[in-house]
């Protein structure tokens, strides 16, 4: 039997979109800034936990994906503005 893992799908959804936004907005792409933005967004979104086998998601939440994309991008934009104005590094 494959080893099962509990995973918050929202982490995957946000981390997929973050590099695109960082590039489009010309933001700092250091790990600290990216983690700060992800933390901001993940604290705004409700968690969506799924069980995975060998890292593969059983469900992709297709029914709400388009609305979820819009919500994630809105929160990422907010996070980007906050982190850009207040980076946690020099």
Explain this structure to me?
With 90 residues, the chain is α+β, with helices and mostly antiparallel strands. It is 58% helix and 13% strand. It is built from three helices and three strands. It has helices spanning 9-25, 31-44, 65-85; strands at residues 4-8, 49-53, 56-57. Strands 1-2-3 form a three-stranded antiparallel sheet. Helix 1 (9-25) packs across helix 2 (31-44), helix 1 packs across helix 3 (65-85) and helix 2 (31-44) packs across helix 3 (65-85). The model has no long low-confidence stretch (mean pLDDT 85).
Give the helix/strand layout.
Layout: E1 4-8, H1 9-25, H2 31-44, E2 49-53, E3 56-57, H3 65-85
Antiparallel strand pairs: 1-2, 2-3
Helix pairs in contact: 1-2, 1-3, 2-3
What's the gist of this structure?
By secondary structure, the protein is α+β, with helices and mostly antiparallel strands.
Rounded mean pLDDT score = 85
Radius of gyration (Å): 14 Å
Helix content: 55-70%
Count the beta strands: 3
SSE topology string: EHHEEH
Low-confidence stretches: none
Gross morphology = globular
Q: Pairing-aware structural class of the strands and helices?
A: alpha+beta
Helical run tally: 3
**Major beta sheet, strand line-up:** 1-2-3
Distance between the termini: 49 Å
Strand count, sense and barrel status of the largest sheet are: 3 strands, antiparallel
Strand content: 5-15%
